[in-house]
Design goal:
A hairpin with a 2-residue loop joins strand 4 and strand 5 (125-127). The chain has helices at 51-67, 102-112, and strands spanning 41-42, 77-84, 90-95, 120-122, 125-127, 129-138, 141-148. The protein is α+β, with helices and mostly antiparallel strands and 154 residues long. The strands form 2 sheets. Strands 3-2-6-7 form a 4-stranded antiparallel sheet, covered by helices on one side. A 3-stranded antiparallel sheet has the order 1-4-5, with no helix packed on it. 18% of the residues lie in helices and 26% in strands. It is built from 2 helices and 7 strands; from the N terminus they run E-H-E-E-H-E-E-E-E.
């Protein structure tokens, strides 16, 4: 019988019959099975995140929208498109409509003065990122929202 070592002598199934028996030794990979690692994308931002960009837009446009008479030109909605360069500056800012209107041109000029942001990054490399600002204008008031557009990684 041999010497007693206080271990079980019962074997339920041989380990080589079940190939997944060593599954606890497997480790997860950050790369998917097809071998391409997902890119780490960070949107353009100020150091204290997105709330400050909202505040900067509000500061830049309050004076312009408060004193301009958009109702005389039948402007009730205004869509602006622009881009943050890979240095964080606003560039290519345009209005979808009413681009030649002097009040809209003044609004574009004020928005171009917004302090630069930290640029968007893809895997730590600064890249350009497009954005859209939409204004809803009524007599005596306005509201706006903005969104960053997805970064094209290819």
């Amino acid at each position: 019988m041999g010497s007693y070592d206080n271990s079980s002598k019962i074997v339920l199934i041989a380990a080589d019959l079940l190939p997944f028996i060593n599954a606890e030794l497997l480790m997860l990979s950050s790369a998917p099975c097809y071998g391409v690692k997902k890119k780490h994308i960070v949107n353009a931002q100020y150091e204290d995140r997105y709330s400050s960009f909202t505040a900067q837009i509000a500061r830049a446009t309050t004076g312009v929208l408060s004193y301009a008479d958009y109702s005389a030109n039948n402007i009730t909605s205004l869509v602006l498109r622009g881009e943050f360069s890979n240095k964080g500056n606003i560039s290519h800012l345009t209005a979808d409509t009413y681009g030649a209107n002097p009040a809209v041109m003044k609004l574009l000029k004020e928005l171009m003065r917004i302090p630069k942001l930290q640029p968007a990054t893809v895997d730590g490399v600064p890249v350009a990122q497009k954005f859209v600002i939409t204004y809803e204008i009524s007599v005596g008031s306005y509201s706006f929202n903005y969104k960053f557009l997805p970064i094209e990684t290819e």
